[in-house]
């Protein structure tokens, strides 16, 4: 039985599939040329292998993951934001706000009573905003309150320091400012505000792995990458008297004195 009351099984499946498809070229397999396109640091790889007690395969796998992961936060941001388009009373605008929650009978806000609309700015992690961007976002929310006196504004953080729905206090031009309808909200609390279910976010997290597995296993358009980096390095190692270390060094130092010959 499908356990999520706030989103249908089909909509959730389609959203997970769309998120994976947004990985795009990051799902393409890596060969040695692509792996070394920005020239990896062989000495770092050697240090990491020895210090952490990893195999060559593991250290190459970690570097492949690092290269792919650099842009993945945008894809996960897509997942966190766009899922709300399937939830009752929510819209996901093309610009302006990340999510808008609007309810005719009002939305309960701690310390505030009810408001008709909640405007949401969404961040992946609590520490991704510097003071300048925090101040800019806060002033955007202040402007919205001036235009609409029946609303609240949320900064929703997927990875917050803790579960919370609190007044957001920032420094703008050196002055501390706060307003009870401008709030800092963890993702679990925002799911609760949207769905009315305290454990909505928890339940979503619990079904997510099986749905991802189902999507990958049943989609013709999605396939996991089959990287050839280790195989190609092994071939180079065979040419270098079986030395995988030397094969690694050649990635960065192939034209250096000693290595070239």
The secondary-structure class comes to alpha/beta
Which residues form runs of ≥5 with pLDDT under 50? Answer: none
The order of strands across the largest sheet is 1-2-3-4-6-5
Describe the sheet with the most strands: 6 strands, mixed
What is the H-and-E element order? Answer: HHHHHEEEHEEEHHHH
Per DSSP E runs of 2 or more residues, the count of β-strands stands at 6
Q: How many alpha or pi helices?
A: 10
How much helix is in the residues?
Answer: 40-55%
Distance between the termini: 65 Å
Radius of gyration of CA atoms, rounded to a whole number: 24 Å
Shape: elongated
Q: How many structural domains in the coordinates?
A: 2
Strand content: 15-25%
Overall mean pLDDT: 91
Summarize the structure.
The protein has 261 residues and is an alpha/beta fold.
Task: Describe what this molecule looks like in 3D.
- The chain has 261 residues and is of the alpha/beta class.
- The protein is 46% helix and 21% strand.
- The protein is built from ten helices and six strands.
- It has helices at 9-21, 32-35, 42-52, 56-69, 72-82, 131-147, 187-195, 200-218, 229-239, 244-253, and strands at residues 90-91, 99-109, 113-125, 151-159, 165-172, 175-186.
- Strands 1-2-3-4-6-5 form a six-stranded mixed sheet.
- A hairpin with a 7-residue loop joins β1 (90-91) and β2.
- The mean pLDDT is 91.
Please write out the topology.
Layout: H1 9-21, H2 32-35, H3 42-52, H4 56-69, H5 72-82, E1 90-91, E2 99-109, E3 113-125, H6 131-147, E4 151-159, E5 165-172, E6 175-186, H7 187-195, H8 200-218, H9 229-239, H10 244-253
Parallel strand pairs: 3-4, 4-6
Antiparallel strand pairs: 1-2, 2-3, 5-6
